[in-house]
Amino acid sequence: QWYQRRVRDNFNEEKALKKYPVVYEESMNTVLIQELTRFNNLTSVVRQSLVDIIKAIKGLVVMSADLEAMFQSMLVGKVPEMWAAKSYPSLKPLGSYIIDLLARLNFFQNWVTKGIPNVFWLSGFYFTQSFLTGATQNFARKYKIPIDHLTFQFEIMAAEDSMECKPDDGVYVHGLFIEGAIWDREKMQMGEAAPKILYDTIPVIWLKPVEKKNLSKEGKYEAPVYKTSERRGTLSTTGHSTNFVMIMLLGTDQPPEHWVNRGVALLTQLDD
């Protein structure tokens, strides 16, 4: 019942679509509606399964094999399989998973009520690649450049998680963690991790679309971005990996091999 009380009602997609219609100039409207649909599918399963298991415990309905498996998972603090089947990738235990899910729902509720945010919480997206495509598409349509000619340039900002306004081009994002290194706030480049410190947060990142021919990789480490620390996934029906997101270029004064040997990567979420 603790979980049941905290999982909000479904988003009103029809109302959101009226406020954020599909328009040529703003691809983020489409991204928003698609994300609301995905989270509605997930929260519907979560909510209904919680209702069913309470009834089953009270003896009002038959305890099916699925509900039994869900009950056993919840006893050991594990995300039930029927939730995971509809969920974004996550290695978090049940309590942390619920808190993370509620934070994601809150992020999109704020987007719906207050408008497109200045800084997007990259970790909050169910299908991160569609958001990145939307950001590139806005730039491609604005400057009439074929979208397959574009990629991202990355600029780490001084601010930790908020900006006063949106950028003219591209998007601001936050919420990433770096594993195997730190982000040196003074030198504004990668630095050695302190002993026994596994992760560091990354400040706001400006994703600036640029033409591939103009992208410079000099003095940069090509850091892979993953959704979870598992660092592996499968190809989904969209042709994208279920775990790998993108390559992000980070400034460094060391050769790339230095960071490759340390297994440095970026993660959208931690396991706890």
Number of helical stretches of at least 4 residues? 8
H/E element sequence? HHHHHHEHEEEEEEEEEHE
* Content-based structural category: alpha+beta
Number of strands: 11
| Helix percentage range | 25-40%
Radius of gyration: 20 Å
Shape: globular
Major sheet details: 5 strands, mixed
Head-to-tail CA distance between termini? 22 Å
Lateral strand order in the biggest sheet: 7-4-11-9-10
Percent of residues in beta strands: 15-25%
Q: How much is the average pLDDT?
A: 92
Poorly predicted tracts of residues:
none
Fold and architecture overview:
This protein has 8 helices and 11 strands. The protein has 272 residues and is of the alpha+beta class. Helix content is 37%, strand content 19%.
Offer a quick outline of the entry.
By secondary structure, the chain is an alpha+beta fold. It is 37% helix and 19% strand.
Summarize this structure as a short list of keywords or feature phrases.
five-stranded mixed β-sheet, globular, 11 strands, four-stranded mixed β-sheet, alpha+beta, 272 residues
What is the strand and helix layout of this fold?
Blueprint: H1 2-6, H2 13-19, H3 28-58, H4 65-75, H5 81-84, H6 94-114, E1 119-121, H7 128-143, E2 150-156, E3 171-174, E4 177-179, E5 182-184, E6 189-191, E7 199-201, E8 205-211, E9 220-226, E10 244-251, H8 256-261, E11 265-267
Parallel strand pairs: 1-3, 9-11
Antiparallel strand pairs: 2-8, 3-8, 4-7, 4-11, 5-6, 9-10
Helix pairs in contact: 3-4, 3-6
